[in-house]
Every structure is written in structure tokens, then in C-alpha cells.
């Protein structure tokens, strides 16, 4: 049996096109374009339009609204990884005199700063940025906070205007130029711009009770640009999705991207369907958790979602202010592809080499009377799995000093080390003070508190 080809099967392509066609028709949008990415490659694209025999290509620009925030967040995390800021820094540490200067960088990234959702004055999305010439103009002087900082998620567009100003201060040039040089050029995204470039879609409002349209203004929002200014294409956003899924050493490490998609503030309610990380939204749908972002500006809606488990991403763009739920369509495209063509597991292969000492560590270990099994993986990595049903295994990364660092679940960041007896033999494993021995309550000198000298007894 061979792997599936890069192109999707005809039945899958038909199902994807049908979903886009329904979105365009029932959502009453002039046009709709979408793409599916599998393991970093575009495997399908499709579009529908109100014009017969004509549909936009994946290289036509649409305004992507709040998807812009994902780009700004990556710029901020680059500054953090370079040591130019800490996520716990108050904004005022880097932008003295800025509004809401006590909000931390992490709170601004995750919409947990408590700041108001919108700017004072006229609706910023439909007015020129010249109406807000100074950073102080993006927040109300007397009441910028709506909630205590750090306590809850409350979406704030002005918060991302402040983050854009932070990037400009620390880089010494406009955020759009930093974006082009640090993100767009390395990723080959030459059709993502601050202002529209031909060919681009026009933005429209469709009357709620009649099939007629009204053009929406195409504004330059100025200082509010980091909240939603960008224009892009399905092809460029497919590249962005591939980057967000895997990372790129020229832009941002995969480990930092994984940090960005962890919920920063606890989701509200037991049946939560959405949460927010550091610049990335999380969506729970169809039994899977997706990460990415939705976007809207007058005349446009957009969605980009990634399923790490399925190795899939989808992008959807439309040019109507309201109508098709474009972000949900993008999520549906992932579900359709996963249902028709589920991801194939990687073929089993033996390790290229084996360390006999590590091999000897594998097998059963006991924390008290609780059984675990230790498995050896690639690159000297280990996995410790409880034998009890319904509990999750933890992976460990080998370090140069002979220890291992936990990667997930309860032991994330904790240290696992092998403790040896005086004769050099393995005595036990120490997992951040938890002792694992080869038998339940093994050697008394290894188990904290000792072991009853009478040993196990029956009543």
C-alpha cells in the first residue's frame, strides 16, 4: 500500500466544493474562495462567484480583518524570544505614557487586559485612521478598563493597537515594515499587504431583505491597523497556516507557536466552544480542537483553522459584511477532509540505533503501588504511561546532562533522572521527587519514608 497522493480524491473535492457553493449561495456573498492544506501543502482550492463562469483564484486579495492579530502576535513573540521583552512586562515598561500602561504584554496578547473592546468616537473599522492620530486616541481617557486585568477574557481591538505600537518602539520602524521584513518575506507571502493591491475583491454589504448590494469603504485604519488592517490571499494564508502548524527557524520556533495556542485564560462555562491563547483563537468543533483565527471588516469575513491531530488546515475568504459564517466554513472544510480521507499514521520503523543502557530501563516501574511502563523513543526520548485505564502518558525529551524534561501533561517541564546505587546499578527513577522502583514499594532506602520491614502481608 502506498501513501495517498497530494491531491485529494474526487469525492472529497466534490464535498469541499459543495460546502463552498452552499456558503456562497445561502450566505449571499458576491464571492467565496477557500483552500485546504494537508501536512504543509495545499491539496485543494475552490471558489464560487455571482458572475457566471468566473470565480476568484487563490491569488486574489481579500481583507482578512482580525487574522491580522496572529501576525502581530508572532512579531511580539519574536521580541520575547530575542530577550527584548518579557510577557510579564507592563506595557509602560517599554511604552512610557501609553494608555493602559499597567497591562502586561501577555494580557494584551490574550485579551485578558480588561480593556474596552472598541475605540471611542466613530466606528474605527469604517473611518480613516486620521481621526485617531495619537495612541491616546484609541482608548477612552476616563474608563479604558471594563474588567480587572488578568481575570477574564474580553476581546479588545485597541489592545492590539497598543501591541503594534510596542513592536514599532522596540524595532524602531513602522510595524508594517517589520511585518514585511521579518514574516512575509521569509515565508514567501508577497501578496499580503497593508493596503489592497490588484487583483483584489471589493467589499460589499448585502441587504438583509433583498438581493441588492452596497459597496463598503476601503479604509486605512492607521494606528488601529494591527487589529485588522491586512489584505491577503488564500494562497498566502495557506503558507501562514503551514507556518503556524510547524514553525520556521527563520521566523519562530515550533515550541513558541505551541505556547501561543495554549489557552491563556480559562474558558467560561462547562460546554465551552472557544478560548484564546497568545494571539491565537481556539475553537472546539466536530470533536476536535482547532487553532487559528476568524476575521471581519466591513465588506469581508475570513477564517483560518488548523487541526494538529489531523495534519489539516483550511482557509476561507468572502467579500460580504455578513452572510456566510466564513470561519465556520473553514472549520467544516477540515471536518470534511478528515472524514473522507483520515490521516494515515506514520509507518512503524525500528530505531536507527539503540543504547543498551536505555533499553534496560524500559518496562514496568512503580510509583508506590501504581504501575507504569517506560518506553524508549527516537532521539533518546522516553514515554512514561500509567497502566491504569483512562490516564495519559507523558513524553520526555533527553537533555545533554543525562536527564529528561517532561513535555506534556502533569510532568511538563519537570525533570526525570536515573538514580544509581553505589555499585553503579540503577536504584530508581526520580521524577521531581516522585520515586519509581522496579517493584511496588521497592528498596526501603529509595522510597521516601521507608518500607515496613515486615513487607507485604495478607489479612
From TrEMBL:
Q: Where are the transmembrane segments?
A: none
Q: Which residues form the DUF7586 domain?
A: 354-438
Q: Which UniProt keywords apply?
A: Hydrolase
Q: What is its EC number?
A: 3.-.-.-
Q: Which GO terms describe its molecular function?
A: hydrolase activity
The record's section on Gene3D superfamilies has: DD-peptidase/beta-lactamase superfamily
The answer to whether UniProt assigns keyword Hydrolase to this entry is yes
Q: What's the name of the protein? A: Serine hydrolase domain-containing protein
Q: Which organism is it from?
A: Kitasatospora aburaviensis
Amino acid at each position: 500500500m502506498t501513501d495517498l497522493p497530494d491531491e485529494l480524491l474526487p469525492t472529497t473535492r466534490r464535498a469541499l466544493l459543495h460546502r463552498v457553493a452552499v456558503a456562497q449561495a445561502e450566505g449571499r456573498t458576491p464571492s467565496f474562495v477557500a483552500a485546504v492544506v494537508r501536512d504543509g501543502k495545499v491539496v485543494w482550492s475552490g471558489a464560487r462567484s455571482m458572475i457566471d463562469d468566473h470565480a476568484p483564484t487563490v491569488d486574489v486579495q481579500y481583507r482578512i480583518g482580525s487574522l491580522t492579530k496572529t501576525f502581530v502576535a508572532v512579531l511580539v513573540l519574536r521580541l520575547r524570544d530575542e530577550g527584548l521583552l518579557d510577557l510579564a512586562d507592563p506595557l509602560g515598561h517599554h511604552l512610557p505614557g501609553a494608555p493602559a500602561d499597567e497591562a502586561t504584554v501577555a494580557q494584551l496578547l490574550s485579551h485578558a487586559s480588561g480593556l474596552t473592546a472598541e475605540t471611542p468616537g466613530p466606528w474605527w473599522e469604517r473611518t480613516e485612521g486620521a481621526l485617531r492620530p495619537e495612541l491616546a486616541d484609541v482608548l477612552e481617557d476616563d474608563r479604558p478598563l471594563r474588567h480587572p486585568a488578568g481575570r477574564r477574557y474580553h476581546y479588545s481591538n485597541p489592545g492590539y493597537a497598543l501591541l503594534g505600537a510596542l513592536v514599532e518602539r522596540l524595532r524602531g520602524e513602522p510595524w508594517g515594515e517589520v511585518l514585511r521584513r521579518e514574516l512575509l518575506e521569509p515565508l514567501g507571502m508577497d501578496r499580503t499587504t497593508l493596503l489592497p493591491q490588484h487583483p483584489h475583491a471589493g467589499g460589499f454589504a448585502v441587504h438583509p431583505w433583498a438581493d441588492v448590494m452596497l459597496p463598503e469603504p476601503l479604509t486605512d485604519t492607521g494606528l488601529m491597523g494591527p487589529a485588522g488592517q491586512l489584505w491577503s490571499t488564500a494562497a498566502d494564508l495557506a503558507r501562514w497556516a503551514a507556518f503556524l502548524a510547524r514553525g520556521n527557524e527563520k521566523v519562530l520556533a515550533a515550541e513558541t507557536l505551541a505556547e501561543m495556542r495554549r489557552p491563556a485564560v480559562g474558558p467560561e462555562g462547562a460546554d465551552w466552544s472557544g478560548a484564546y491563547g497568545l494571539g491565537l483563537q481556539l475553537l472546539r468543533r466536530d470533536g476536535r480542537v482547532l487553532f487559528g483565527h476568524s476575521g471581519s471588516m466591513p465588506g469581508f469575513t475570513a477564517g483560518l483553522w488548523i487541526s494538529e491531530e489531523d495534519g489539516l488546515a483550511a482557509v476561507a475568504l468572502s467579500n460580504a459584511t455578513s452572510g456566510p459564517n466564513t470561519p465556520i466554513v473553514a472549520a467544516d472544510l477540515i471536518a470534511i477532509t478528515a472524514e473522507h480521507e483520515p490521516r494515515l499514521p506514520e509507518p512503524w520503523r525500528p530505531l536507527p540505533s539503540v543504547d543498551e543502557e536505555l533499553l534496560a530501563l524500559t518496562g514496568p516501574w512503580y510509583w508506590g503501588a501504581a504501575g507504569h511502563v517506560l518506553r524508549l523513543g527516537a532521539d533518546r526520548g522516553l514515554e512514561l504511561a500509567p497502566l491504569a485505564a483512562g490516564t495519559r502518558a507523558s513524553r520526555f525529551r533527553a537533555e545533554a546532562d543525562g536527564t529528561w524534561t517532561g513535555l506534556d501533561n502533569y510532568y511538563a517541564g519537570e525533570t526525570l533522572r536515573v538514580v544509581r546505587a553505589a555499585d553503579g546499578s540503577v536504584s530508581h527513577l526520580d521524577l521531581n521527587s516522585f520515586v519509581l522502583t522496579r517493584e511496588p514499594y521497592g528498596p526501603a532506602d529509595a522510597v521516601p519514608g521507608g518500607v515496613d520491614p515486615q513487607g507485604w502481608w495478607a489479612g
